[in-house]
Write a structure and sequence with these properties.
about 300 residues; mainly alpha; 3-stranded antiparallel sheet
């Protein structure tokens, strides 16, 4: 069976799962099981550009969860905790999880900014002085240092899913986030310039909330375009050089899997996730993303050909 046919059948299986499963409730935290809960099926389809294939029934349940079963405050201090018994039963979220939910539903066409305005307000609220965010509450009390993994989904949520002029707050949020990535040279420590995590040099798909260097490059290229800011071309060229081991024949090859049994997020995958994430396979989704980065560079007279 060919790869395309395997992916097609896996998509159909995910659609059936989402259509038949009532499990987007908090009970048992089924929606958050890595990697085989409803949340993950929806996120994979979204990243493929197939968000419209998510059954409407699953979208309705996801909106209901966010509206009624999520504690709408990031818990940093004791005063942030729910007090009533009913609120204590609600799911607590982190920035990257909430941002991915937001992107899925916005891409589907949901009017979240009118129906659930607290989500965008949350995303914009928790930027740290260095320009990023951190899903570890202690960072807001002690280190005040961000996490690249926690930062990208919120930045993407605002950048990719704002179909109007940015507000001043949103513009600052994006510009500060870009500064954070640039100062870290996409993957490096500001302290000594060393690579923070060498796995980030290996492209992965789907990513969910995970980070790789191409994800950061894609954000900076689109940020430059949408905000009419100088393109950090030298940094993008450096990123392309770091990506070279995974480029060839006009494609970006998968370098790692988010569900790697030896990795930090080990878990049992579902067929669509396995079909999309075979190490060494050319990924049309990552290739399209890199094509957009290179196109943006060519607009500024920087040319790169990996074909």
């Amino acid at each position: 069976m060919g790869t395309n046919q395997t992916i097609f059948l896996a998509i159909e299986e995910s659609i059936r799962f989402l259509d038949s499963s009532p499990n987007l409730e908090v009970s048992g935290e089924y929606s958050r099981h890595k990697w085989n809960g409803a949340w993950w099926h929806m996120a994979a389809l979204y990243e493929m550009g197939e968000v419209k294939k998510i059954p409407e029934s699953a979208i309705v349940r996801a909106k209901y969860l966010l509206e009624t079963q999520v504690w709408q405050t990031f818990i940093i201090s004791p005063n942030d905790h729910p007090t009533s018994e009913s609120d204590k039963m609600k799911m607590d979220c982190c920035h990257c999880e909430l941002a991915v939910y937001y992107m899925i539903l916005k891409a589907y066409g949901c009017d979240l900014d009118n129906k659930l305005p607290w989500i965008r307000e949350w995303i914009l609220k928790y930027q740290l002085p260095d320009g990023g965010l951190n899903c570890d509450p202690d960072a807001y009390v002690h280190s005040h240092k961000s996490s690249i993994i926690s930062t990208l989904p919120p930045l993407e949520a605002i950048l990719w899913h704002t179909n109007r002029d940015f507000t001043e707050q949103e513009a600052v949020f994006l510009d500060e986030g870009a500064r954070y990535l640039i100062e870290h040279r996409l993957v490096c420590s500001k302290h000594d310039g060393s690579i923070i995590n060498k796995d980030w040099l290996k492209p992965c798909f789907p990513r969910f909330f995970e980070y790789d260097i191409l994800r950061g490059m894609s954000f900076l290229a689109e940020w430059s375009r949408r905000r009419n800011k100088a393109l950090p071309a030298e940094l993008l060229i450096e990123g392309l050089e770091r990506l070279k081991p995974f480029l060839g024949a006009g494609s970006v090859r998968i370098g790692r899997q988010v569900f790697d049994p030896q990795g930090p997020w080990a878990g049992d995958p579902f067929p669509l996730l396995e079909a999309l994430a075979r190490i060494g396979d050319a990924s049309p989704y990552l290739t399209r993303q890199l094509d957009r980065v290179i196109e943006r560079m060519s607009e500024h007279s920087y040319y790169y050909d990996f074909r």
